[in-house]
Specification:
By secondary structure, the protein is an all-alpha fold. The protein is elongated, with a radius of gyration of 18 Å. About 5% of the residues have low confidence.
C-alpha cells in the first residue's frame, strides 16, 4: 500500500476514534459511562480534549505509516495534526448564545452543557461536568462531586 494512502487511513482512523472518545456517547453509552467513571483525573480530562486525545490515539496508528523511529515520530505528529484539522473542519458551529457560553466558561465541551428535563439544575448551582454527564443519562454517581 502506498505511504500516502497509509497516511490518509491513519489520519481518518485517528479522527474517528478520537471523536468517539471525546464527543460521543458511544454504543450503549459505554464512552459516557467511562468518562463519568474516570472523573477529573488525567485520563478523564484528556477525554474532554480532542487535541490531547488525538496525540495518544495517533501514536500507535503512526506505526502504520512508518516504522523507523524518526519516521514514526514525524508521522505521529502529522497524523495527530491532520486529525485536528479534520475536527476543526467538521466541528459544528456553536448554537448557544454568547451570554450562555460565557456563563458556562470553563466547561470543556458543549455536549456537557445539556441536562435532561428530569434533572433540575439552575445556573447558580455549581456542578462538575462529569456529574452533568452522569446526570444526563440518569445515573447517580455518588463519588463525583456535584
Amino acid at each position: 500500500m502506498l505511504t500516502e494512502l497509509r497516511f490518509v487511513c491513519a489520519l481518518l482512523a485517528t479522527w474517528r476514534v478520537t471523536h468517539l472518545l471525546t464527543a460521543e456517547d458511544g454504543p450503549f453509552d459505554v464512552i459516557v459511562l467511562l468518562r463519568a467513571r474516570l472523573g477529573d483525573n488525567v485520563v478523564g480530562r484528556a477525554m474532554d480534549c480532542f487535541y490531547c486525545s488525538s496525540l495518544w490515539v495517533a501514536a500507535p496508528l503512526a506505526l502504520f505509516v512508518a516504522t523507523d523511529p524518526l519516521g514514526w515520530f514525524v508521522a505521529w505528529l502529522a497524523v495527530s495534526g491532520g486529525a485536528c484539522l479534520v475536527e476543526r473542519l467538521t466541528d459544528r458551529p456553536h448554537t448557544r448564545s454568547e451570554t450562555d457560553r460565557a456563563s458556562r466558561e470553563g466547561e470543556p465541551h458543549e455536549l456537557l452543557w445539556r441536562t435532561p428535563p428530569s434533572v433540575e439544575i439552575d445556573d447558580s448551582t455549581p456542578i462538575s461536568s462529569d456529574a452533568r454527564i452522569a446526570g444526563s443519562i440518569g445515573i447517580d454517581v455518588p463519588w463525583i462531586p456535584r
